[in-house]
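Listing S7. Sequence submitted for prediction.
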Amino acid sequence: MGLKYERIAGELRRRIKDGELAPGERLPTEQELVAQFGVSLATIRQALSSLRTEGLISSRHGLGSYVRQPHKMITRRSERHQLEKDTVRKSEEERRHAGSAENDTGRHTNDFVFSASYTTMVADEDVAKVFGVAEGTPVLQRSYRTRFRDEDVPVAVGCSYVLLDTVRANPALLDSRNEPWPGGTMHQLSTVGIEVDRVVEELTTRLPSPDEIEELDLLPGTAVFAVRKTMFDINGQPVEHSDFILPGDRHRLVYTTQLERWK
């Protein structure tokens, strides 16, 4: 027969999976569930806790429990970098609708909400080492958030760095109001005469911080991909560096390596 809370969790789970309780719909209050199932408040709370752990519901402080909206999956492919470079020489109208996010998801630009904030700061030891400059060198830090218009949480969060001396020749690159920039970072760099030659990405996985769990709406135990990306120009110099977080429950990473043929 199972424990009482397990039977109640099973019934609520069935209602969710059968569509009787739709994504985003509010569940009956705890007191309503107590009356409905004829059990104690503690039993109801155990059942709801079980459903939260499974990711079927989420709780909002003071508002109750809601059926959790499944997050859309995103496939991130290595070809995205060549696509971005190919886009650099296209018209602005074409660039506005051919970004990496659109390519990864197959969605239209209007399906996304982008936000960016820029801060002029000095390079710490880590950033200075990447660029091969002295600590204290001025850099432009750019923080990004991207989400689907019909979702409340970001699909990814990131922070990018470029040397201030590299981009200050084009004042438009210093203004976050120009984001999302048509064509992305490679086009931005092209406006100051830089051609990107290669992109190096280092991927690790880890458990998220408490702030990341809240901002990204992560389930308990969900890992994140921590990606460190560095772009190099045709002279082998690093020209952009970024760290960003991809939630493990909504990203699929596909990397294809073309091998040279035997002569």
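Caption to Listing S7: primary sequence and predicted structure tokens for the chain studied. The chain has two domains: 4-67, 74-254. The mean pLDDT is 91.
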